[in-house]
Specification:
globular, mainly beta, nine-stranded mixed β-sheet, 2 helices, Nucleoside Triphosphate Pyrophosphohydrolase
Length: about 160
């Protein structure tokens, strides 16, 4: 059977001084699988767009800012991650320049600038703690990871860099 994951983006917007990251605190919808957690910005790719266009669109929709510069930091395969056990394939970006002023909130929750050195203190998916250091490190090579989930729990984690 062919593997047909949901294709999505996940972006981390840096402040101009590169010390803070724009995060969403998913605190608006009681039915949200991410309720109470902090996350980057992003979402599902639409037909007819490439993955970079998807990231730019999602950042504009969720934060009200335009990406001026972004880098693909890696890809993540999340088998079984969805609410109904759906598989997800994510393209992880670092947005290091943007124009405009970010929204204070969107329908999913509050947008907050968080100091990079405090990221690991936030409530987030357990798996995010494994790949976030790779998003912000100085290694220019993209990472390619797999992180299976079952019943909302991370089962394992592995990655390569090429």
């Amino acid at each position: 059977m062919p593997y047909t994951p949901i294709v999505a983006t996940l972006g981390y917007v840096l402040s101009a001084d590169r010390r803070r990251v724009l995060m969403i605190h998913r605190n608006s919808r009681p039915d949200d699988i991410h309720l109470g957690k902090y996350n980057g910005l992003g979402g599902k790719m639409e037909p007819g767009e490439d993955i970079a266009a998807c990231m730019r669109r999602e950042i504009l929709e969720e934060a009200g800012i335009e990406c001026q510069s972004m880098r693909l930091r890696g890809t993540l395969n999340w088998p079984g991650f969805g609410k109904q056990g759906e598989d997800w394939l994510g393209f992880i970006f670092l947005i290091d320049a943007f124009s405009g002023e970010p929204f204070e909130r969107n329908p999913e929750g509050a947008l907050e600038w968080v100091e990079r050195d405090r990221l690991m203190e936030l409530p987030m998916w357990e798996g995010d703690r494994h790949f976030l250091p790779l998003v912000f490190d100085e290694d220019a090579r993209p990472f390619h990871g797999v992180m299976p989930y079952r019943d909302g729990k991370m089962q394992s984690w592995g990655f390569t860099r090429l």
